[in-house]
Transcription elongation factor SPT4 (Coemansia guatemalensis), 116 residues
Amino acid sequence: MASLVPKDKRQLRACLICGIVQNHHVFRDAGCPNCERLVKMAGQSDVVADCTSGTFDGITAVLQPRMSWVCKFAHVNNYQPGVYAAHVAGRIPEDIEDMLAQNGISYHPRDGSADE
C-alpha cells in the first residue's frame, strides 16, 4: 500500500480524464497508467499540464478496483490500483476531447460539471 501513496505531496496532480493522483514527475516520466495509450503524456510536459490539475479533493486509495463498489460508483473500477481524486478542477482541451470521442471514449469531466 505504501507504494501507492505519493511521497511528495507538493507536486501532486490528478489526471483530468481518470482522476489518478501522482507526482508531476511521474506523469512526465511514465505518463498516466490508465490513459497513456490514448493521451501520451510521457515525455510531454505540455500534455501533462493540459491533462492534469493540481487542484483536486476527496481522495481514495484503491488496491482492487474491480472488486470495489466504491470504485464502481466512482467509475474507476476498470483502472489500475492507485490513489484517485473524487473531484478534479479543470477540463481537458477540446482537441483531446475530440480525439477521445474519435476513439469511442466518452469524456466525463471530473470537476462535477457533468452532474449539473
